[in-house]
Amino acid sequence: MNKSFYQYLMSERNENSYEPIAEFANNAFLDQSFPKQSADFEEISKYLEENASYLPSMTIFDDVWQNYLLSIN
What we know:
Blueprint: H1 5-10, H2 20-30, H3 41-51, H4 58-72
């Protein structure tokens, strides 16, 4: 079974980094409502657009999503 997007994103956490991807991961870790089991682009994208005020740009999500896809293929 492939890992969820959230599981991949957690591998990008770094509390000492100000890089956008690390900050996204750090904030998603604190987001109790994040769809942790999902591997569905549309579901996660919609959630982030509607609920993730901590994500300054959806481009960051798009970049991480591409890295995620490479990691599972």
